[in-house]
């Protein structure tokens, strides 16, 4: 018996020595996860520059003709001079590296139509889209998650069927039609919301700090301007949020139903825990990780510009700027907007990945 014990002790000692020689990781798992995601995001941004440049320059239309007009485009000498001035006579690979070099210096080029730096123009219009997108996503998350949770907890009952029908209407109804009807009913008929634009015509914008009128007016202490800007924000935010509300309602319902059937939820109910604790600490928290993904994608979509909504409500944001650049074949504008939209999606997904690390302990361990 003693021999067996000695043998087992001697057999276990190498593994114990090996375990003692294992060094702890140089970086904590969460920090290593963040650094990896930063590296991947940088590579994706570089890829966005390539895709944006190639797709823009492969458009089967001559941008020089769009710049010069029919009469000047008929003169070969003027066309050749314009191509040389814009660098369009260089090989495509040379044009890309010139574009990338300028981009690293903060130069997105100059609009061919307005002769204004693209970066400056985007800086002027993008805060409007940010303000509209934040308002829409807040409404979408609050209402969509509440409706999805209520629908799942009342599965196959009248409330469930009613919420699913409303969410289907929100997803299916055309945004431009909802915007036009909402503008007609709530502004022209009921007069409960202000008209188009970000402010009433007789009001001056607040001193620019962030470009968001609601925030800048609060920073400047202009409460009347804040109330007016907030009123102008309500209707377009609600219109833009309808599709996202329907999407989040249906997705959160499905996610909550998957969690309700798991064993740890059944065990929590068997312990006699209060219903509120079971719903929010067990069911809703377990369903939160996939919901965060949809919220991130929806937020990126809202920030990238809603052309139709901005057009109906005269909201001078990134969507309208992109539309004007596309209709006039303004290549620097198209490339600049495409790059900004790509970076927005990458940054939103990066933030979503960071939230994963804090919400789901399994991500930190891996």
TrEMBL record:
Q: Where is this region: Disordered?
A: 1-20
InterPro entries per UniProt: BPD_transp_1_N, MetI-like, MetI-like_sf
Q: Which SUPFAM superfamilies match?
A: MetI-like
Q: Where are the transmembrane segments?
A: 30-55, 132-153, 165-186, 229-251, 282-308, 333-359
* Gene Ontology cellular component annotations, sorted alphabetically: plasma membrane
- Low complexity composition bias: which ranges? 1-13
Q: How does it sit in the membrane?
A: Multi-pass membrane protein
Is this entry keyworded Cell membrane? yes
Q: Which Pfam families match?
A: BPD_transp_1 (PF00528), BPD_transp_1_N (PF19300)
Question: What compartments host this protein?
Answer: Cell membrane
**Annotated coiled-coil segments of the chain:** none
The ABC transmembrane type-1 domain covers 126-356
On whether Transmembrane helix is a keyword of this UniProt record, the answer is yes
Q: Name one GO biological process term.
A: transmembrane transport
Q: Which UniProt keywords apply?
A: Cell membrane, Membrane, Transmembrane, Transmembrane helix, Transport
Family (UniProt): Belongs to the binding-protein-dependent transport system permease family.
Q: What is this protein called?
A: ABC transporter permease
> What organism is the protein native to?
Brevibacterium koreense
């Amino acid at each position: 018996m003693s021999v067996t014990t000695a043998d087992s002790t001697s057999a276990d000692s190498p593994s114990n020595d090996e375990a003692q020689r294992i060094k702890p990781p140089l970086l904590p798992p969460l920090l290593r996860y963040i650094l990896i995601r930063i590296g991947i995001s940088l590579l994706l941004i570089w890829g966005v520059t390539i895709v944006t440049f190639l797709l823009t320059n492969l458009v089967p239309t001559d941008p020089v003709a769009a710049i010069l007009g029919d009469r000047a485009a008929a003169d070969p000498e003027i066309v050749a001079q314009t191509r040389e001035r814009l660098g369009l006579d260089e090989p495509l690979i040379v044009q890309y590296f010139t574009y990338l070099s300028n981009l690293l210096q903060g130069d997105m080029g100059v609009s061919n139509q307005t002769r204004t730096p693209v970066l400056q123009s985007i800086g002027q219009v993008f805060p409007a889209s940010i303000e509209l997108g934040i308002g829409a996503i807040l409404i979408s998350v609050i209402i969509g998650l509440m409706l999805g949770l209520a629908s799942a907890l009342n599965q196959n009952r009248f409330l469930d069927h009613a919420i699913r029908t409303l969410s289907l209407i929100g997803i299916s109804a055309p945004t431009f039609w909802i915007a036009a009807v909402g503008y007609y009913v709530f502004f022209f008929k009921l007069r409960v919301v202000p008209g188009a634009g970000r402010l009433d015509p007789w009001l001056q914008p607040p001193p620019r700090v962030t470009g968001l009128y609601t925030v800048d007016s609060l920073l400047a202490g202009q409460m009347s301007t804040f109330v007016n800007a907030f009123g102008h924000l309500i209707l377009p935010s609600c219109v833009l949020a309808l599709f996202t509300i329907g999407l989040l309602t249906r997705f959160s319902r499905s996610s909550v139903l998957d969690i309700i059937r798991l064993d740890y939820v059944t065990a929590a109910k068997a312990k006699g825990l209060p219903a509120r604790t079971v719903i929010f600490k067990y069911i809703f928290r377990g369903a939160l990780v996939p919901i965060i993904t949809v919220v991130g994608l929806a937020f990126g979509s809202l920030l990238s510009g809603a052309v139709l909504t901005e057009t109906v409500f005269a909201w001078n944001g990134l969507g309208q700027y992109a539309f004007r650049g596309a209709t006039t074949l303004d290549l620097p504008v198209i490339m600049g907007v495409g790059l900004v939209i790509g970076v927005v999606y990458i940054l939103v997904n990066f933030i979503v990945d960071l939230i994963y690390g804090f919400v789901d302990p399994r991500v930190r361990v891996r």
